[in-house]
Amino acid sequence: MIQLAVLDMAGTTVADDGLVERAFTTAIGAQGIEFGSPDYDRMLAHVRATMGESKITVFRALLNDEEAAQQANKAFETAYGALVDEGHCAPIDGAEDAIRQLRNAGIKVCLTTGFAQTTQQRILSALGWRELADLILCPAQAGRGRPYPDMVLRAVLDLKADAVANVAVAGDTAYDMTTGIAAGAGIVAGVLTGAHGKDQLQAAGATHVLSSVRDLPDLLLAESQDQ
């Protein structure tokens, strides 16, 4: 029986609408990488391929210099936060109802992100979601970000699920799927509202692919009834 749902934010429960790429463009521009240049295109391709990963890890891979990576990450978080503050932040249609439905059914919910905690909190404040979930986690609070299982395992401990097999992980990226598989989650569901398509999600190990997180309660409740 599923006792805990660990849900990604941007692209899964929160609409991205290109905000990550816009903030990335600002951050990488501050490092002297011009929009439309070969280096920019190469880096943007890497950002798209690694959607869901901790952003500082992405910048470390791109820049190969810790100081530059830290500067770029700070610029990214500042740019993304400004976009949120300007009103460019909205929930995925039906996401809030899905979370409430899960909790009403006795399934605990943890929201996770690859962003820094300050950015995560700004998103939650903008949406009025500070009290929506049972637990909110970012990589710094758990140890490592995706594709490592740390955030899922921290949620298992903090919310006292009986076993990792009783956990469902849902996200829009291959890294979300890799995280769920590494954690041993019983259900690893990909959603088609974000960065990656069905083929990428299935190749990364998705046990289910859903059109949206709004379909997750029906899946989890059906699985529980079958057991």
Would you kindly provide a written description of the structure presented here, covering whatever features stand out?
- Helix content is 50%, strand content 13%.
- It has 227 residues and is of the alpha/beta class.
- α9 (174-183) links the parallel β6 (167-171) and β7.
- α4 (66-85) runs parallel beside α6 (117-127) and α5 (95-104) runs parallel beside α11.
- It comes from Kribbella yunnanensis.
- This is Phosphonatase-like hydrolase.
Largest sheet data: 6 strands, parallel
Question: What share of the residues lie within helices?
Answer: 40-55%
* Strand percent estimate: 5-15%
Distance N to C terminus: 7 Å
Label the structural class.
alpha/beta
Organism: Kribbella yunnanensis
InterPro entries: HAD-like_hydrolase_sf, HAD-like_sf, HAD_sf, PhnX-like
Protein name: Phosphonatase-like hydrolase
Topology:
Layout: E1 4-8, E2 14-15, H1 19-29, H2 38-49, H3 55-63, H4 66-85, E3 90-91, H5 95-104, E4 108-112, H6 117-127, E5 135-137, H7 139-142, H8 150-159, E6 167-171, H9 174-183, E7 187-191, H10 198-203, E8 208-210, H11 216-226
Helix pairs in contact: 1-2, 1-4, 3-4, 4-6, 5-11
Which labels suit this protein?
alpha/beta; six-stranded parallel β-sheet; globular; two-stranded antiparallel sheet; 227 residues
Describe what is shown at a glance:
This is Phosphonatase-like hydrolase. The protein is an alpha/beta fold.
